[in-house]
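## tool: complex_structure
## caller: assistant
## args:
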Amino acid sequence: MTRNFIKLAGASLIALVGSAHISMAATTVTFWHSFNPEKPNGQALEKIIDNFEAANPGVEIKPEFIGNYNDIVAKLQAAIPAHREPDAVIMEVTRYGLFADRGVLTDLTDYVNNDPLKEDLFGFAREVGVFEGKNYIVPFNSSTPVLYYNKGIFERAGFTEEPALKTYDDLLKVSKQITEKLGDDGITGIVAPGQFARWGLVMDNDSDLIDSKTGEILLDSDNTIEAYQWMASLVHEHHVASPDGVTDEKKGGRDAFLSGKVGIMMNSTGNYVRSKKALGDDLGVLPMPCNKVCSVPIGGAGIGILSTAEQDVKDAAYKFISFAASAESNAIWFSGTGYMPINKHTAEQDLAKDALAGKPGIDVAINQLDFARGRPRPPVVTWMRASEYGLWEAMALGQRDVKDVLSEFATKTREEAARLAK
Amino acid sequence: MARKFLPYFYILPLLAFIAVFTYIPIATSINLSFREWDFMSATKPFVGLENYQLLLTSTEFWNSVKITAIFAIISVPLRLALALMAASFLTSEKFAPRMLRGAFFLPSVTSTVSIAVVFSWVFSTDYGVANALLKHIGVGKIPWMQDPQLALLVLILVNTWKQIGYDIVIYIAGLQAIPQELYDAAAVDGGRRFHVFRRVTMPLVMPTTYFLLVISVIEAFQVFTIVNVMTHGGPASATDMLVNMLYRVGFTLFDIGTGSALAVLLFILLIALSLIKSRVIGRKVHYEA
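## result:
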């Protein structure tokens, strides 16, 4: 009896030491991201992680869903002084400049230059990861805004064929007709544009928020003001967009479109699969309007590595980043979410071929790439984007004059840029 | 000698706990309020009173003080009055009052985030339940969350609904402690219900009222979750209360120095308010029947 007990205890000890050895041998990479595991985007990411771990038994990726891009920025800031930051993090393409500037992110230039992946990435995908000549993130989920519409609502509003949706006037005209015909059923014409779409509509009006080449603040330029005036008028003047979409972009905007309460929504192509699931064959996808010029912003996010991570963790994290941007992984991501392919060979994968053949509209964002532009990412952009939400609310609800707001905002942004540059 | 220090040894764990979670953060906050920092920079240059000067000369800060004061002035008396009224009817130990006590208390132990999310659906202009119900009685759409005054009113209502259960329970305890003989004597003297309430109940429940007043004013000045989830301080800064502004300045605009200065000012303001309450009302509170 005693002998058996000693044998059992010995075996347990060996097993314990063995498992401890195995777990010590594995490199763990904590990875903060913004994709809800219960939604298609999160499920596609999980699949990529599973594939990576199967191919790299020595590395464990520990994903943590943090919230949206703003939540990641806020939580990362709090985590840094507490030394509780992750090893790798998803960062939105205009917001990582501040973290790169402050030395929070690792310079990945050498990793990227020595990685054959570099040649496989599209030009736009390579560009979004570069800040002041160095590579700080590798793109994972790239997007442009597209114009989604509900065919069923269009039909009920009396459109027998697809109307022109090329200019601001076209959008307003169609939105008015939908609201007039179906307003009594609680249906409105258009979703009040979210921040990504607002930036796109400013670019369509031949302007920008910050000049991507010179860094000049363009918030108070005539075309930017004109674009904001038009966007705000959809809500408070023409009443074709619900004010709920202004005070709550997600619930009052996107969710209303997904539940068949709105005719048109301009939003990231990353919403494609979710929208298709919600609206089925009623979903139509078109390029963004070209009001004065055709121009769309490139959005989405890339993965960066924290400079505080140990060298072996950095190496393992980059291995994952590179794997996630490979043609195979990118095909899973593209077909499962609707985000744009970033790898030149993604379209050759069966999954991608099937998606392109069987999911009409998923290629609209890709076709827009001819006139897609990367956006500026100086440190002040993070501050500017965080401040813009409240100001947009005041403008869209008609509580403040657009020109006054943007002039004041431009001045403050210039001051903040100067303060950050100190 | 050892005997002399033994009591201090016993309270050491608790002192350490309070120091780590209260005193050290307060001291750190005060220190940071005199510095410029964005959470990421290696240095935290000393800027003297610059952060305080920036706040005290900014319209945003005074707007937040005004809104928080309005919120407290409306919500605290509303909470206390409704709670005392409800508690008066719920002191009995019968089945129905006991059930109702539980029902009133339920929101107090429910997640504030969940409550805020649900109420933002309820008060959504185009897609909300409130307007859908009002439509049936011929009332047009009310922009609950877009009108500056209404948005503040909605926050007051939601906060009252969330907190009132706690106030009721405390008031019930206070009411049950009033000796029955006093009510009997008042009845013999022919006192009417209202007079008995004013002359007997109100003065004797004053210690409870004073306690709840102190607690609810502090809570009103620290309200954050419902603001952050339901309005983010909008529309047009109409609900940008002090703690929401603190979060915005510190965590979304990366100015932790100014955010800390705001926290220190809020701390001073709450101490001042408590002292005023203690001087003005505290002296009128009698703790014996």
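## assistant note: The first helix of chain B runs from residue 2 to 32. Chain B has one domain: 54-284. Handing back to user.
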